[in-house]
């Protein structure tokens, strides 16, 4: 695996093909500082091309996922004017784009505060597991600002109608409601249930070929923007390459031999 960057705001743990990334600013409920954004982007870049990594698990330290943007960074940018605010804001949007497109399965474990930027990170995950008592919300308008970089990702996750309601009221809601909205896939009663669900999800991911998962994820994301005819032509080419490639050959042989494929052993 490519060497991971040294981080001051993140804890990194590599375990059986899974990279656990923990936002580690518990004193601020893991508020998203510019330094944290830069470190997350560097970690994602280092992990991107490593096919031995099957999944990335993103969570927060100290009982909270992420309480949004760092007010201290915003205050520091004030003296530099609008250009500094644009840079600060757009850097987070770039992080969301990059997180959404990593070839590995991105799992978000959401506890405590999941606000603003944390809400945005939840929306770009492939699989989201929340505590039933987690606190979700888009508080930006209650602070006199807008969810500028987050909004497009929220709309794609839960739809325009619900996003309008939540963004224009700054309403707070729990993990059970987040599951009802389709923001998260699972709402679990307590920490033990969250860990069981995470372990079960990782075991399911390990049954899937990593190359096939990466190509499938890219295809699903492209389906949101590519013309259908061109997308299906491209998908047919990818299918032919997959079925005749190493993973496809191994998968079909394993099926015939009634054994687990090599990636699931």
TrEMBL record:
| InterPro entries attached to this UniProt entry | ClpP/crotonase-like_dom_sf, Enoyl-CoA_hydra/iso, Enoyl-CoA_hydra_C, Enoyl-CoA_Hydratase/Isomerase
Q: Which Gene3D superfamilies match?
A: 2-enoyl-CoA Hydratase, Chain A, domain 1, Lyase 2-enoyl-coa Hydratase, Chain A, domain 2
Top-level taxonomic group: Bacteria
**GO process terms (BP):** isoprenoid catabolic process
One family from Pfam that matches here is ECH_1
Which GO-annotated molecular functions does the record name?
Answer: catalytic activity
Q: Give the record's family classification.
A: Belongs to the enoyl-CoA hydratase/isomerase family.
Write the protein's name.
Answer: Enoyl-CoA hydratase
What high-level taxonomic lineage is stated for the organism? Bacteria, Pseudomonadati, Pseudomonadota, Gammaproteobacteria, Pseudomonadales
């Amino acid at each position: 695996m490519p060497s991971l960057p040294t981080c001051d705001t993140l804890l990194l743990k590599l375990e059986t093909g899974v990279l656990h990334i923990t936002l580690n600013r518990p004193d601020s409920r893991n508020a998203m500082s510019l330094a944290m954004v830069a470190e997350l982007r560097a970690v994602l870049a280092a992990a991107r091309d490593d096919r031995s990594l099957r999944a990335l698990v993103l969570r927060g330290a100290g009982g909270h996922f992420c309480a949004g943007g760092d007010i201290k960074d915003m205050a520091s940018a004030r003296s530099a004017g609008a250009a500094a605010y644009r840079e600060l804001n757009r850097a987070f949007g770039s992080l969301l784009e990059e997180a959404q497109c990593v070839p590995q399965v991105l799992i978000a474990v959401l506890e405590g505060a999941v606000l603003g930027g944390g809400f945005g990170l939840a929306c770009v995950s492939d699989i989201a597991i929340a505590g039933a008592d987690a606190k979700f919300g888009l508080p930006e308008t209650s602070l006199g600002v807008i969810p500028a970089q987050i909004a497009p990702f929220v709309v794609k996750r839960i739809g325009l109608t619900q996003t309008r309601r939540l963004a224009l009221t700054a309403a707070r809601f729990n993990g059970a409601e987040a599951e009802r909205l389709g923001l998260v896939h699972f709402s679990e009663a307590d920490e033990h249930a969250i860990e069981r669900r995470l372990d079960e999800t990782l075991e399911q991911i390990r049954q899937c070929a990593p190359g096939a998962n990466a190509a499938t994820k890219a295809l699903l994301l492209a389906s949101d923007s590519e013309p259908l005819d061109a997308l299906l032509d491209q998908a047919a080419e990818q299918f032919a390459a997959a079925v005749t490639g190493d993973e496809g050959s191994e998968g079909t042989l394993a099926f015939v031999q009634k054994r687990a494929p090599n990636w699931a052993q």
